[in-house]
Amino acid sequence: MIEDCKSAKNPKEYRSKHLAEYQLHDSLKKELQDLGVTKIPSSEKIQKRIENLESEQAATIREKQKLQKKQKTLDIIQQNFSVLLDAPEINSDLLPAKREPVSVTRDK
C-alpha cells in the first residue's frame, strides 16, 4: 500500500483514500518498535524458518513415539518384576527330588 502510494498520480488523494490502512500500519509499526522489532524479516526467511521448525517438529514427534514405545516396554518389564517379587516363595517340598547323577559303564 505504501509502495503503491509512491507510484500514485496524486499521493495526497491516495493517502486520504486509504487513511484507515495507514493508521493501522502506523499503529502496528509503533507496537513492533515498542517490542524491539525494528526490521521484519523477508517472507523467504520466514518461510525457511517455518520449514525448519516443521522439520524439527516432525523429528521431535518421531523421537517422542520411539521413547513412548520404549517406555511401554519398560513398564511391562517393571510389571513383570513386581509380579515376581510379590509371588509367594515356592515350598521346597513341592519341588521334585534331586536325582543323583548316575555313571554309566560298559561291560566288556
What does it look like?
This protein has 108 residues and is mostly helical. 68% of the residues lie in helices and 0% in strands. It contains four helices and no strands. The longest helix is centred in the middle third of the chain and has 44 residues, at 43-86. The chain is rod-shaped. The model has no long low-confidence stretch (mean pLDDT 83).
List the helices and strands and how they pair.
Elements: H1 2-7, H2 11-17, H3 19-34, H4 43-86
Concise account of the structure shown:
The protein is mainly α and 108 residues long. Helices cover 68% and strands 0% of the residues.
How many strands? 0
Spatial gap, N to C terminus: 114 Å
Order of helices and strands: HHHH
What share of residues is helical?
55-70%
By DSSP (H or I, 4+ residues per run), the number of helices equals: 4
Which structural class do you get from the secondary structure elements? mainly alpha
- Cα-atom Rg, whole angstroms? 39 Å
What is the strand content?
Answer: under 5%
Overall outline: rod-shaped
Give the tags.
single chain, 108 residues, mainly alpha, 4 helices
